[in-house]
Design goal:
Blueprint (H helix, E strand, L loop, with lengths): L2 E8 L3 E8 L3 E5 L5 H10 L2 E6 L5 H4 L2 H7 L5 E3 L10 E2 L5 E4 L2 E7 L8 E5 L2 E5 L2 E2 L2 E2 L7 H11 L7 E4 L4 H11 L4 H15 L7 E2 H7 L8 H6 L9 H13 L2
Parallel strand pairs: 3-4, 4-5, 5-6, 10-13
Antiparallel strand pairs: 1-2, 2-3, 7-8, 8-9, 9-10, 11-12, 13-14
Helix pairs in contact: 4-9, 5-6
Length: about 250
């Protein structure tokens, strides 16, 4: 059975992702607020099948209570840290969910939060605040090493993987990438494309893992041009160390 992917804008810059099958059954990912989901259900006559949560932050879980009040039989899957935010089914690394006739693999990606997970059902990757287009999540609870390993795991997925991240951060991320590698033609070209999309209030997602490997500095720490940025600093000699430094520089703005 085929699936249709839809992004529902929410809050300031969030996206709530929806996967809908041919029978109009829908899976909702990270509902930071309920109203966009309720509006879409009413407009398209979706039948809510399940809710998936990647981590506990309110901009990913804030709509769960209202949705489950309205649809009390709907399972809400999430990591341990989301059980107090409305999750009813605890899932963890290595688990597999059968939803809408498709298998969803659960992958642990600590870093942004300690319990952060993502869901992968080929070709869809619902990665919350771990991987962004052109960037990665801030390290609110975890370490740079944890996030580096999480991104390394995700980077092993097929190149055609659709990266469904939860925020419209692409232009900001590419501005940082451009400042860091101003001569990189792929980053410049993609940044210009994204600028035009945003000028027209268009979404920049999903992206593909193939594209991210070319324009996302945080996946490029073994590339010669990134190595060259830090070649005079012996403490930044490994990919993980270079990743940590890039994350630090991005945090500085």
């Amino acid at each position: 059975m085929s699936l249709t992917l839809t992004a529902l804008p929410a809050l300031d810059d969030n996206y709530i992702w929806a996967l809908i099958d041919d029978n109009n059954r829908a899976i909702i990912v990270d509902p930071g607020e309920a109203q966009p989901v309720l509006d879409a259900i009413a407009q398209h006559r979706w039948e809510l099948d399940a809710i998936l949560l990647t981590h506990h932050h309110a901009d990913h879980t804030g709509g769960v209570k209202l949705l489950t009040d309205r649809y009390p039989a709907i399972p809400v899957y999430g990591p341990q840290e989301t059980l107090k935010k409305g999750a009813t089914q605890h899932v963890e690394d290595g688990d597999s969910l059968e939803l809408l006739g498709h298998s969803f693999s659960v992958i642990a990606t600590p870093g942004h939060t300690l319990g952060h997970i993502v869901y992968y059902a080929k070709p869809y990757l619902f990665c919350g605040d771990t991987l962004f287009s052109g960037g990665c999540g801030r390290l609110f609870e975890g370490t740079a090493d944890q996030m580096f390993l999480a991104l390394t795991r995700l980077n092993q997925l097929p190149k055609e993987t659709l990266v469904c991240c939860a925020h419209e951060y692409t232009l900001s991320n590419l501005n940082f990438a451009h400042r860091t590698l101003p001569q990189d033609s792929m980053i410049n070209e993609y940044r210009n494309k994204v600028k035009k999309l945003r000028e027209n209030a268009q979404i920049t997602l999903p992206t593909t893992l193939e594209t991210e490997r070319l324009i996302n500095l945080f996946l490029m720490t073994e590339r010669p041009e990134v190595i060259a940025l830090f070649e005079d600093n012996p403490t930044l000699s490994t990919p993980a160390q270079r990743f940590a430094e890039l994350r630090r520089l991005k945090d500085q703005g």
